[in-house]
Amino acid sequence: MAKTKWSVQDVRNIFNELDKITGADSSKVEIKINGRLKRALARYTCYTYSRRPVNFDFGTDIMNVPDFQALKDTAIHEYAHFIVNSVRKSDNLGHSAEFRQVCKDLGTDNYTLEDVMISLKKPNLDPRDEMPQPILKSDVLDIKDLKIGDKLQ
After folding, report:
1. How many angstroms separate the CA atoms of 61 and 121, rounded?
2. CB-facing half-sphere around the CA of 113: CA atoms within 13 A
3. In sequence order, which residues have a C-beta less than 8 Å from that of residue 57 and are 6 or more positions away?
4. In what order do the strands lie in the sheet with 42-46?
5. Handedness of CA 61, 64, 68, 71 (dihedral sign)
6. pLDDT in tens, 37-82
7. Which among 7, 45, 47, 132 is least buried, having the fewest CB atoms inside 10 angstroms?
Protein backbone atom coordinates (compact mmCIF):
# COMPACT_ATOMS: atom_id res chain seq x y z
CA MET A 1 0.00 0.00 0.00
CA ALA A 2 1.35 3.40 -0.98
CA LYS A 3 2.14 5.94 1.74
CA THR A 4 -0.60 8.52 2.23
CA LYS A 5 -0.57 11.93 3.89
CA TRP A 6 -3.20 10.89 6.44
CA SER A 7 -3.32 7.56 8.27
CA VAL A 8 -5.97 5.15 9.49
CA GLN A 9 -5.13 6.43 12.99
CA ASP A 10 -6.03 9.99 11.93
CA VAL A 11 -9.47 8.75 10.87
CA ARG A 12 -9.80 6.66 14.06
CA ASN A 13 -9.07 9.80 16.12
CA ILE A 14 -11.90 11.63 14.32
CA PHE A 15 -14.25 8.70 14.99
CA ASN A 16 -13.22 8.63 18.66
CA GLU A 17 -14.22 12.30 18.96
CA LEU A 18 -17.56 11.54 17.28
CA ASP A 19 -18.13 8.53 19.56
CA LYS A 20 -17.85 10.87 22.56
CA ILE A 21 -20.47 13.17 21.03
CA THR A 22 -22.94 10.44 20.02
CA GLY A 23 -22.35 7.81 22.69
CA ALA A 24 -21.86 5.23 19.93
CA ASP A 25 -18.90 2.85 19.70
CA SER A 26 -17.22 2.63 16.29
CA SER A 27 -13.99 1.18 17.72
CA LYS A 28 -14.67 -2.35 16.46
CA VAL A 29 -15.43 -1.24 12.90
CA GLU A 30 -12.37 -1.66 10.70
CA ILE A 31 -11.02 1.36 8.80
CA LYS A 32 -9.18 0.59 5.56
CA ILE A 33 -7.39 2.64 2.92
CA ASN A 34 -8.66 1.38 -0.41
CA GLY A 35 -6.59 2.33 -3.46
CA ARG A 36 -9.29 0.99 -5.80
CA LEU A 37 -11.96 3.35 -4.47
CA LYS A 38 -12.27 5.89 -7.31
CA ARG A 39 -15.94 6.83 -7.76
CA ALA A 40 -16.30 7.92 -4.13
CA LEU A 41 -14.00 9.45 -1.55
CA ALA A 42 -15.03 6.93 1.09
CA ARG A 43 -17.79 4.47 1.92
CA TYR A 44 -19.36 2.77 4.90
CA THR A 45 -20.41 -0.86 4.49
CA CYS A 46 -22.82 -2.81 6.66
CA TYR A 47 -24.78 -6.03 6.23
CA THR A 48 -28.11 -5.40 4.51
CA TYR A 49 -30.47 -7.16 6.90
CA SER A 50 -28.78 -7.06 10.28
CA ARG A 51 -27.14 -3.66 9.67
CA ARG A 52 -24.06 -5.03 11.45
CA PRO A 53 -21.08 -2.86 10.49
CA VAL A 54 -18.45 -4.29 8.16
CA ASN A 55 -15.93 -1.51 7.57
CA PHE A 56 -15.13 2.03 6.50
CA ASP A 57 -13.12 2.39 3.25
CA PHE A 58 -11.25 5.61 2.53
CA GLY A 59 -9.83 6.16 -0.95
CA THR A 60 -6.28 7.31 -1.51
CA ASP A 61 -7.56 10.60 -2.99
CA ILE A 62 -9.11 11.72 0.30
CA MET A 63 -6.24 10.27 2.35
CA ASN A 64 -3.84 12.52 0.41
CA VAL A 65 -5.90 15.70 0.43
CA PRO A 66 -3.78 18.56 1.84
CA ASP A 67 -6.57 20.01 3.98
CA PHE A 68 -7.31 18.01 7.16
CA GLN A 69 -10.80 19.57 7.32
CA ALA A 70 -11.69 17.88 4.02
CA LEU A 71 -10.70 14.51 5.48
CA LYS A 72 -12.63 15.28 8.68
CA ASP A 73 -15.80 16.28 6.78
CA THR A 74 -15.61 13.09 4.72
CA ALA A 75 -15.09 11.00 7.87
CA ILE A 76 -18.09 12.69 9.53
CA HIS A 77 -20.18 11.93 6.44
CA GLU A 78 -19.30 8.22 6.59
CA TYR A 79 -19.77 8.16 10.36
CA ALA A 80 -23.27 9.56 9.85
CA HIS A 81 -24.03 6.50 7.65
CA PHE A 82 -22.77 4.31 10.51
CA ILE A 83 -25.09 6.07 13.00
CA VAL A 84 -28.18 5.94 10.79
CA ASN A 85 -27.66 2.44 9.37
CA SER A 86 -26.02 0.47 12.19
CA VAL A 87 -26.69 2.30 15.45
CA ARG A 88 -30.27 3.43 14.80
CA LYS A 89 -30.87 0.56 12.33
CA SER A 90 -33.00 2.92 10.27
CA ASP A 91 -34.73 1.84 7.09
CA ASN A 92 -33.69 5.18 5.59
CA LEU A 93 -30.64 4.16 3.61
CA GLY A 94 -28.67 6.62 1.53
CA HIS A 95 -28.88 10.38 1.96
CA SER A 96 -32.30 10.56 3.57
CA ALA A 97 -33.61 13.44 5.66
CA GLU A 98 -32.57 11.50 8.77
CA PHE A 99 -29.03 11.12 7.39
CA ARG A 100 -28.80 14.83 6.50
CA GLN A 101 -29.93 15.73 10.03
CA VAL A 102 -27.25 13.52 11.58
CA CYS A 103 -24.63 15.17 9.32
CA LYS A 104 -25.84 18.57 10.46
CA ASP A 105 -25.81 17.52 14.13
CA LEU A 106 -22.22 16.32 13.74
CA GLY A 107 -21.05 19.53 12.08
CA THR A 108 -20.99 18.90 8.33
CA ASP A 109 -23.42 18.91 5.44
CA ASN A 110 -23.75 17.68 1.88
CA TYR A 111 -22.66 21.03 0.46
CA THR A 112 -19.29 20.78 2.18
CA LEU A 113 -18.80 17.28 0.79
CA GLU A 114 -19.79 18.40 -2.71
CA ASP A 115 -17.12 21.13 -2.46
CA VAL A 116 -14.53 18.52 -1.49
CA MET A 117 -15.51 16.33 -4.46
CA ILE A 118 -15.28 19.25 -6.89
CA SER A 119 -11.85 20.23 -5.55
CA LEU A 120 -10.50 16.68 -5.83
CA LYS A 121 -11.64 16.42 -9.45
CA LYS A 122 -9.51 19.47 -10.34
CA PRO A 123 -5.90 18.44 -9.76
CA ASN A 124 -3.45 21.14 -8.66
CA LEU A 125 -6.29 23.55 -7.88
CA ASP A 126 -5.28 25.87 -5.10
CA PRO A 127 -8.35 27.73 -3.76
CA ARG A 128 -6.08 30.59 -2.70
CA ASP A 129 -5.70 31.48 -6.40
CA GLU A 130 -9.30 32.72 -6.35
CA MET A 131 -8.80 34.85 -3.23
CA PRO A 132 -7.86 38.54 -3.38
CA GLN A 133 -4.11 39.05 -3.19
CA PRO A 134 -2.72 40.92 -0.16
CA ILE A 135 -1.62 44.50 -0.67
CA LEU A 136 2.05 44.77 0.20
CA LYS A 137 4.21 47.78 0.97
CA SER A 138 6.15 49.06 -2.04
CA ASP A 139 9.45 47.75 -0.67
CA VAL A 140 8.11 44.18 -0.33
CA LEU A 141 8.77 42.36 -3.58
CA ASP A 142 9.20 38.82 -2.29
CA ILE A 143 8.20 36.75 0.74
CA LYS A 144 11.82 37.08 1.92
CA ASP A 145 11.26 40.85 2.30
CA LEU A 146 8.73 40.26 5.08
CA LYS A 147 9.76 40.30 8.73
CA ILE A 148 8.00 39.01 11.85
CA GLY A 149 5.54 41.65 12.99
CA ASP A 150 4.98 43.19 9.52
CA LYS A 151 1.31 43.86 8.87
CA LEU A 152 -0.42 43.27 5.57
CA GLN A 153 -3.40 45.32 4.51
Report:
1. 10
2. 20
3. 32, 33, 34, 37, 42, 43, 45
4. 30-34, 53-59, 42-46
5. positive
6. 877 889 999 888 888 899 999 998 889 888 888 899 899 999 999 9
7. 132
Give 34: exposed, middle or buried? Use CB within 10 Å, 0-12, 13-18, 19+: middle
Residue type, 2: A
